[in-house]
UniProtKB/TrEMBL annotation:
It is found in: Cytoplasm. GO terms for cellular component: cytoplasm. Its cofactor is Mg(2+). This is phosphoenolpyruvate--protein phosphotransferase. NCBIfam families: PTS_I_fam. Its EC number is 2.7.3.9. InterPro entries: GAF, GAF-like_dom_sf, PEP-util_enz_mobile_dom, PEP-utilizing_PTS_enzyme, PEP_util_C, Phosphohistidine_dom_sf, PTS_EI-like, PTS_EIN. It catalyses: L-histidyl-[protein] + phosphoenolpyruvate = N(pros)-phospho-L-histidyl-[protein] + pyruvate. GO terms for biological process: phosphoenolpyruvate-dependent sugar phosphotransferase system.
Length: 758
């Protein structure tokens, strides 16, 4: 809160305290409240709407027609007031009538008022009403006024509940829990299947007292709570999970950074200064954080705000004495954890034997908790809206993170089908696990290299688990994404050395940092500070590295030092023209010369390669081929560029097919261009991990695949059933005269040869 907001809130709270302490009835208190707020904020209109019988009813007003009190009612989601309650968010409008949710109610006499601001009145994370102000003149309300309204709304929630002005059961009916089966959809964050009972990560802390009687005593409670929370974070940093130098400790460093953030502490103290109790002050700042989160477009910054939300919940539990969570109480059955969001440290508190899956109301692919969950092998489904309104504690859940769904309270038939699929999946996994020590060789004796994609130190363990031939793509940017600051060269060197040590004799291809686009870093911005309309095709990957050459120099030195005495494979991403490769290699040559002058041990050999993601590079491969040792085709980006279809846009997800003749012909041309050269060709991308698509790639002449670890077993099993001459001939025919449905044709061809494709 600003100093002005603190003063305004303190003035209002002082007056409200007198109102609440009076002997008048609840309606009179509300009438006095709107007068107090209106006068303090110099507002021509102040109105309070409360939830009654499922509708938002005008309970008190200053400035609107008094005849409308207890007459004007609207549904949740209806009009501006209904929108505030439905979305639990603040509105601040210079011209209310211009908003798409505006609805005119003639009985209120509000037609002469233009500006509008409203905040939700929240109880147990549900909106039970709205507090609104209006002015005749069009203007946006100052931040100080909005913050004061939000603080007052917290006090009102206590007043209206204590005065029985709303029925809490009625409030819960706003999102009443269903009793029958319900399927919910979300975003797959970590793939996998799981079943268990719903367990809420943390019961909501109920704040019983909002207005402080002794400000200094409340401040001391917060200080003690901060000390205890920081002790907990430091203790977790010493746990075994964080002692191995993996990515977890970098995640926790960011977590600890927030725990010691002075700005966060200051905002809570300012809220206490305004007259709130310690619990209410923390909740007040937390509400502000949630509203900011809704406005953040940057996914990485949004994830950092989620970490702060996690810490605020922890602090609130400590200061209130309600510190029990599902983790501390222990899981008694196989459980699916439910949370709005989850911090990485909190996930690690759970019993891994009982925790089978996680479902989040929020979450994103780059969040810290996803990194930890992936390392733990726990499926995670995110962006599942309305969880608290549908899922009850103890409800049976079937989580299918592969398909992005969860079934709540499934019927016996659904459970039986899921268990059959689960059993079949386990059988398949057992078969695939048995392929670990089997080389991927076709029926005609051709050896196919099956490698894995990785990005974390822990991912390297999948080499031994899957029997992969190496790491065909190590995404070095992951270390940058989980760090609060630019990783130092020494830390990069340790990571790369550890990865090569763990891989042993198997090759590791390190892709230089690919940031930008959807992988933004808060500590690395455009010089002009401007955003990009199309970041996937903008300032990213090698373009960033060449412009910020200090970043590439540090990474080059780290890779060269880590590979001392052994082979090094370096791959440059998003190369569009040969000169970009030349410029990037020159950076490595410069660092190599420096190390040579310093008498350092150099790599035994260095193999350079590029990723073919930008179609323009295919037109100059004859110029590039003499300079490179390998070419890796990144089918994810390549496909979106070929089809001008953003792969992150759900409306375009089905607009193109990897088995389209257009992309298969493009890939065949690339393979043929490099025939007769010593350049190794591989495909690294989701396409190579799908069985039918992998079959097509083999028919095009691709002999090296780099895929997710989970796909290694299935692809090895597929390779063992393939007759290369047969699929090569078939592909030639299909691409010469493409059938109307190439996918269907290939599926039938595979079925005739007993090759399963799913």
């Amino acid at each position: 809160m600003t100093s002005g907001a603190v003063e305004a809130a303190r003035t209002i709270l002082t007056s409200l305290h007198e109102v609440m302490a009076s002997r008048s009835n609840a309606q009179t208190k509300l009438n006095n409240v709107v007068e107090v707020i209106g006068e303090c904020l110099d507002s021509e209109v102040c109105s309070i709407y409360l939830l009654r019988e499922g509708m938002l009813e005008l309970f008190a007003t200053r400035g609107l027609a008094q005849e409308a009190v207890h007459v004007t009612r609207m549904a949740v989601g209806e009009g501006l007031v209904g929108s505030i309650a439905d979305r639990i968010e603040t509105l601040n409008l210079a011209e209310a009538a211009a908003h798409p949710d505006f609805m005119y109610r003639p009985e209120t006499g509000e037609d002469k008022f233009h500006s509008f601001a409203g905040v939700p009145i929240v109880r147990r994370e549900r909106a039970v009403g709205a507090l609104c102000v209006q002015h005749v003149e069009p203007r946006r309300y100052e931040e100080v006024e909005i913050e004061a309204l939000q603080t007052v709304a917290m006090v009102l929630s206590e007043l209206i509940v204590n005065a029985d002005l709303i029925d809490e059961e009625d409030a819960r009916a706003l999102t009443a829990a269903q009793t029958g089966p319900e399927q919910m959809r979300g975003l797959t964050l970590v793939k996998g299947l799981a079943s268990g009972v719903a367990v809420y990560h943390q019961p909501r802390v109920t704040i019983e007292h909002i207005v402080a009687e002794d400000t200094e005593a409340e401040r001391q409670r917060v200080i003690l709570a901060f000390d205890r929370m920081r002790e907990q974070i430091d203790r977790m940093a010493n746990q075994a999970e964080f002692g191995m130098g993996g990515e977890h400790d970098e995640v926790l460093e960011t977590y600890r950074m927030f725990a010691y953030d002075e700005g966060w502490t200051r905002r809570i103290n300012e809220a206490i200064d305004s007259g709130l109790t310690a619990e209410a002050a923390i909740e007040r700042v937390q509400q502000r954080t949630r509203m900011r989160m809704r406005q953040i477009d940057d996914p990485l910054l949004a994830d950092r705000m989620h970490d702060l939300e996690d810490l605020a919940n922890r602090l609130l539990r400590i200061v209130s004495g309600q510190i029990g969570t599902a983790a501390s109480m222990g899981l008694r059955n196989d459980a699916i954890l439910i949370a709005r969001n989850l911090g990485p440290a909190e996930l690690l508190e759970y019993d891994k034997r009982r925790l089978k899956g996680v479902i989040l109301e929020e979450g994103s692919l780059t969040s810290h908790v996803v990194i930890v969950a992936r390392a733990m092998g726990i499926p995670v489904l995110g962006r599942v809206r309305g969880l608290r309104g549908i899922v009850r504690e103890g409800d049976p859940l079937l989580l299918d993170a592969d398909q992005g769904t969860t079934m709540v309270r499934p019927s016996p038939g659904v459970v039986e089908a899921f268990e059959a699929r689960f059993a079949k999946n386990r059988e398949r996994q057992a078969v695939y696990a048995g392929m670990r020590d089997v080389a991927a060789t076709t029926l005609d004796g051709t050896r196919i290299k099956v490698m894995i994609n990785a990005g974390l130190r822990d991912d390297v363990a999948n080499l031994n688990l899957t029997g992969a031939d190496g790491i065909g793509l190590f995404r070095t940017e992951f270390q940058f994404l989980v760090s609060a600051t630019l990783p130092q060269r020494e830390k990069q060197t340790r990571l790369y050395r550890d990865v090569m040590d763990a891989a042993g004799d198997r090759p590791v291809v390190f892709r230089t940092v690919d940031i930008g686009g959807d992988k933004t870093l808060p500590y690395l911005r455009h010089d002009d500070g401007e955003g990009e309309e199309n970041p996937a095709m903008g300032w990213r990957a090698l373009r960033v590295a060449l412009e910020r050459d200090a970043l590439l120099k540090a990474q080059a030195r780290a890779l060269l030092e880590a590979a001392a005495g052994r082979p090094l494979n370096v791959m440059f991403p998003m190369v569009a023209e040969p000169w970009e490769f030349d410029a990037a290699k020159a950076v490595f040559d410069g660092q190599l010369a420096y190390l040579r002058r310093q008498k350092k041990v150099l790599p035994e050999a260095i193999r350079y390669g590029v990723m073919l993601e930008v179609p323009s590079l295919a037109e100059q491969l004859d110029l590039l081929a003499p300079k490179i040792a390998f070419l890796s085709i990144g089918t994810n980006d390549l496909t979106q560029f070929l089809f001008a279809a953003d792969r992150s846009n759900p409306k375009l997800a089905e607009r193109y097919d990897w088995l389209s003749p257009a992309i298969l012909r493009f890939l065949r041309r690339v393979v043929r261009t490099l025939e007769g050269t010593p350049v190794d060709i591989s495909v690294c991308g989701e396409m190579g991990g799908r069985r039918l698509e992998a079959l097509a790639l083999l028919g095009l002449g691709v002999r090296r695949l780099s895929i997710t670890p989970a796909a290694v077993g299935p692809i090895k099993e597929l390779v063992g059933k393939v007759d290369l001459p047969a699929i090569t001939a078939a592909m030639e025919g299909w691409l010469a005269a493409p059938p109307a449905d190439l996918r269907g044709t290939m599926t039938a061809w595979a079925a005739e040869r007993d090759i399963a494709i799913d």
